Records
---
Amino acid sequence: MDFLTIIQILDSTIRLATPLLLACLAGFFSERAGIFDIGLEGKMLIAAMFSAAVAYVTGSVWLGLLAGAASSVALAALHGLASITFRGNQLISGVAINFLAAGMTVVIAQDWFQLGGRTPSLFGGARFEPIILPFAEAVADVPFLGPIYAELLSGHSILVYVTFLLVPGTWWVIYRTRFGLRLRAVGENPAAVDTAGVSVVGLRYAAVAICGVLCGIAGAYLATALQAGFVKDMTAGRGFIALAALIFAKWRPWPAMWSCLLFGLLQAIALRYQNLDLGVFTVPVQAMDVLPYVLTVIILAGFVGKAIPPRAGGVPYVKER
Amino acid sequence: MANEAPAIELKGISKAFGPVQANKDISIRVMPGTIHGIIGENGAGKSTLMSILYGFYKADAGEIFISGQKTTIPDSQAAIAAGIGMVFQHFKLVENFTVLENIVLGAEDGGLLRPSLAKARKTLEELEQEYDLKVDPDAIIEQIGVGAQQRVEILKALYRQANILILDEPTGVLTPAEADQLFRILGRLREEGKTIILITHKLREIMEITDTVSVMRRGEMTATVKTSETSPEELAELMVGRKVLLQVDKTPAQPGDVILDVKNLRVVDEMGVERLRSIDLQVRAGEILGIAGVAGNGQSELLEVLGGYMDATGEVRVNGTLMPLTGAGADGRSRRESGVSHVPEDRQREGLIMDFAAWENVAFGYHDDAAYNRGVLMDNSAVRADTEAKMERFDVRPPNPALAAKNFSGGNQQKIVLAREIERNPDLLLIGQPTRGVDIGAIEFIHQQIVALRDQGKAILLVSVELEEILSLSDRVAVMFDGQIMGERLPSQTDEKELGLLMAGVSGEAA
Amino acid sequence: MDVVPKWAEVTLIPIISLLLAAIFSAIVIIAIGEDPLNALKIMVQGAFGSTYGWGYTLYYATNFMFTGLAFAVAFHASLFNIGGEGQALLGGLGVALVCLLVPWPHWTIALLFAMIGGAAFGALWAAIPAWLQAKRGSHIVITTIMFNFIGAAVLNYMLVNVLKPKGSQDPATARFAEAVHLPTLHDILAPFGIAFSKSTPANVSLFIALAACVLVWLLIWRTRLGFEIRAFGKSQSAARYAGISGVRITMIAMLISGGLAGLMAINNVMGEAERLVLNPTEGAGFLGIAVALMGRSHPFGVFLAAILFGFLYQGGAELAFFTSIPREMIIVIQALVIMFTGALDNMVRMPLERIFLALRGKEVR
């Protein structure tokens, strides 16, 4: 495996880790506020469909992004309605949202474009184009550092850069601001927040809305940057891998980035080598596909440190006397 | 002074929960700079009233005046703005936050945390000096004691510049010494002009610290009197609405053979903390051993070990037979087979399954009994018939076996558990907090049943945090503190003061 | 206090929830320019209008009974088994191995062993998350989700690398032998002089599913084990007090649950496809969640809900044939049913509580 191949795999890792990281941070906000969300997949999917459809119709990828985020926020609001306002089962609501998105995306896309549930392919301004960082071409020939800058760091869409900047951003919001303090508190003990005179419902809806926006960007990235249009079930379990990454990271922002990069790397390798020949034995492609899930189960089993979720997670808040 | 507006005035407050009228036309005036006690039985409506004042519930009717100003309190935020602070019975703290973060939460200055925390640290130092409220601002809540947690709650209210402080049953989790410290703090607050409302069901506290006391009964305010002009007996009568038998009628015990023999019992929890330290005790047939102590000093662990569902080391013999304390045979089912019945401390979490019907709860734990089964299937009609009979004998109301446990009152729930456990004719009955959350009428009935079981020659281990109950029921009293037995006394030869010292960990010789 | 009486809790709330799901489905159908009443007519006609329709409806319903019961049993123990899909996939593998490896003399013996194989593989796939939940406290919802993906990969690997006949491009096993062919409803009903469509997959598994409904009912409501499962599900702390082992109940409930999900394979793999293909379950494992929620985890409710979803699946297929409504509309309806009956049930209950309170208030006066 030569240096350029490694660079290419890592480059592909960044592309593939981006939607995972966005969805993972989405889940981060929701779950730190005490709302479990297994509906990340569905929200990404509906955003992928709407962003591709609107980008195609308007020719503007930005309008597509907006539409994708809006559709994802709509599903997030439904999840909020079920789990915050009506104190329903958050897991069931998440399952329902995944199905709703799986069905609605095809029904709407078919009604809209009659292409069997796809959107037309996107060109030009309807897609996010790669951004060439300054001097990328000039330094490309510098040994070692040149390719790293020109190939690995340069040439991604704006969403990739924004996503990775969101990691320190999220850390700062959560640990350094009033909103972050309250958000963490409401995921640990909503009664403490309520008696301190802060609205539990308001905070949780805010968290769920942020989750919706981030899932929306993740979906839009899939359909308008990573690929050129929407196809049925195009999220392909990424929402669940993101969830796995969140658990793997024990609900913390920096580790979330590293676990998404790790899972992205696994996807990149699986994509490049169908069956990875390690000389001694051959790793089948299926093993690469399931590694994120297996790793998450191991983490959950507590064999490698204990993953303790936010204490009030999954429990609807009822005022007590 | 006489013309001063009351700090709080409530006029005609009413609140119903469905068919239950929790508060009926309640009016009350609390003067500034005083400590005002509110006393009443469980379910008298004290907590509902205070929840209305703190914005948790909206009253159906009535008005609230704060310092003479008509005020509406739709939520906690409005209550805080009106200068009201509340210390709940169950603390409302974020366990893995620091003291400082808990104090700042909801009272931040601006969007960024750093300046808020710095300011709070400074204010906290001042408050500590002013009121003698010591806590480490950087300690994590779950790592400090309950007394310190309570001080954090008080500091939270003071940080929000509360002028009126409501404390709901604040001494339930405290030792007598900690309670005294709390009362000193409250006295200091009163000197500084704060108004304090103290909700409690303990007459001693009312007499000791309050200036005025209001009595609630069945959702109504029955009287408001000056503490100096009343007596515990008068208050008790006002609470219950009739003369109360504070003493249980019973003949002297006739102790027989040793039924329960405990030697060197130890429990270490997951965190490595010793919860029981070398407990030795014996209970004989025909006697009641009362275990006194402040909640959380190992009594619950003792009951759970004896009941078979907490691991321990040491020796426990029942009727001379060694009981397994870990692994196979250390479970509730095996204990019942060995003649041990257990009425647990928390009937809603352990004794009953709240969603199960009464008849299912009567079978619960005894569902393997041959009388309840026919071959591989359960004989549900046999269980129902047995439940009907038990409900009649124990006067459970309503006598409907199909009703879910959650639909019975606290007293009737307890009677269901008691009927299930007592009628098994056990050699040893473990009973924890038998009358917690139970109305007075049922308390007398439950006490009679316990004494009757003793008179049949059964051994009874009674755990209660109510000293009065311990003193009136027990034939011997052992006091637990910090996982140890501090000493044993005969009820006739001790008093609440001596037991109080033992409960605070002052050893027998010094007391 | 229970404000809503029990009869209303088990009838009124599910029915109103279902109506709401139907109304929203109708809105979607109107939005894509079709007539919901006409759609309903086509669906009813397609699902119940002929023995052909009935055959498919009952075939789907058989799958859903197994997976619905699977979810319900675990749910009674308060275990949220989202892994029905993976367990049913592995059940398929078990059934396929049994059918392929042994030259069975007769379908009855083959079916018996296929049931054991399917249930065992399904139970095995539930056992690991169950053990991790019971012993290590690992959240079973997440582990079963993960095991769905892992199960799909295992099946994929087995089909592509192990079970695919030499020279075949199709990731599927060889056809099962003729001897293990299960009698279809056509075969079973013919001796009674009842003419039933020959070309539907409904088979003898239907009766096994019905028997499973009865057995699960007996288990949950009439046996000591069922009593313990329900007690543990309602209150783990009380179960601990009573000496009901949480580890034991968690393991048993999940093994039964996984076994039931795995049993589904006798219907779709042995009864219909007669070979193992990629994705043989087609989401039936997930649908079990909807079926159990709608049926309030009661076997009779599961039976009714399974028939209803069988109707939706068969009717929905007809819909895609005769109108511009795509097949995925079924998934939308399914999602709405889960949402309204499972997560938004308080939205229905809260107003009902108010109504019943008002009624009770009048009685008191």
---
Amino acid sequence: MASQGLGKEQSIQEMIARSRNNKGKKFIEKLMPIILVITALISVLTTIGIVFTLIFETFEFFQRVSITDYLFGKEWLPFSGSEPLYGILPLVLGTLKVSVIAACVAVPLGIAAAIYLSEYASDKTRRTIKPILEVLAGVPTIVYGFFALTFVTPLLQELIPSLKIFNALSPGIVVGIMILPMIASLSEDAMSSVPNSIREGALALGATKLEVSIKVVLPAAISGIIASVVLAVSRAIGETMIVSLAGGATPTFDFNVTGSIQTMTAYIVQVSSGDAGYGTTIYYSIYAVGFTLFVFTLIMNLLAQYISKRFREEY
Amino acid sequence: MVELMNKTNKTETIKIKTPSELIGQSTPAVDKRSVFNTKNFNLWYGDHHALKDINLDIKENEVTAIIGPSGCGKSTYIKALNRMVELVPIVKTNGEINYRGRNILGASYEVEELRTRVGMVFQKPNPFPKSIYDNIAYGPRIHGIKNKKILDEIVEKSLRGAAIWDEVKDRLNQNAYGLSGGQQQRICIARCLAIEPDVILMDEPTSALDPISTLKVEELVQELKDNYSIIIVTHNMQQAARISDKTAFFLNGEVVEFDHTDKIFSTPKDQRTEDYISGRFG
């Protein structure tokens, strides 16, 4: 070991061998995968824990309320003293009204914005607009809620005099505005990742820019666009603050969007912030509603996976 | 559309594609055999003078090869011919490129119209992520042909024209990306044929292909020149010698020599051409 300690005389291979035999390094090499598995497990186990809590408490709820009454009941009156009614349909309908309105606002606008950003905007414009979109996505939902209640609702009342102060339309539109940046940004990502060579192929056939955008780039990016829409609609379904503030607390079973509604999430807020005692039926009902909500978003995600797989255009 | 339906075989296609018909009545009668007549054409990428005073007269129903070392401007030149070069935002040009007697750089020339007449095949096969059928039908569809029967005919004819019909006829509804590179390139050629262009530009069409696929594409070029004028950029001098009628040698953005291919390869006039084709540089 004459060369030890003197860098010049030590061959590179010797140095490499020494580094490889370093005990500490070997230990870390063995330890790291274990740590990484644990961190991965934490998130998985938390999710499983949440789902199980939901299931157990929901099960408790169905000991007290019949499952058919819950699933098919058209009246949700948990607070009506002697004879409470737990029919989920009005709440589901409230959620659907808001989500459908939101999607009607956000999907066309979001995709149009994505087409502009990906196909038409200059690099400079894109670099300016995308961060702004992402800031918009970071606005706290309570702010959107106030925006809906104090600005959008009065504005809409000018147009539709019969509009109630609490209604489905205003929070629907504002939830749409909230999820719009998500659709625009994610769809833009999907469209930008379509290789340029494909655009050139279409342009070389005499296609106009619009034809390239609509008939080549959009279909090629459709799986990413669908994924963004479903993700955004899932957020709309789960959105809480806006609908609690501007939607009202009247579960109704009709298709009217001008009157007060209550969504599944808004009901959970109402009960959680109220004084329903632990162990009461009302207390368990929020788990049942939460579980229903979970099933909804789960179905949405599975649907999205199926659709995006079916429509995927490989390139 | 009537024209398309009538063209059931190649012989008829040749008859229909006479130069006078292609030029039409309104165009002034310049040299009728000339497809692309480039006069004093200059092109800059920002400050970089990429093409310097190009003068080339490319004739119809010939294969014109453009050779030269990397960075000599040969790809830039053929991309200027269908104005694809304009996709680079910093490009500036002056001079004239006359396609069938009309300057394509003129303000009134619609680039989409030009590109329906002048098709292009790219270096890397770039089929659309669609079925083989939809790839071929894309061009006719965007130009307004919707009738399924006519489209079926166009698809079959174009695929036959690109010598790939027999390989794909049973899987027209499968994604074009499932094909091999050489097949994809022939799909791209078929896609180009589907709108019956006048000129086909080929930008190193075989550089990403294996030798057998290359051979097939070369044979195809030989067949296509009966009906189309072909301008092909190639890195491969043997390829230029094998398939082209005329060859232009580009160097540092200039045309060094442009002549019949056999002359370029046997008795070049310019020393630099001789050096290049004998492999002394490039």
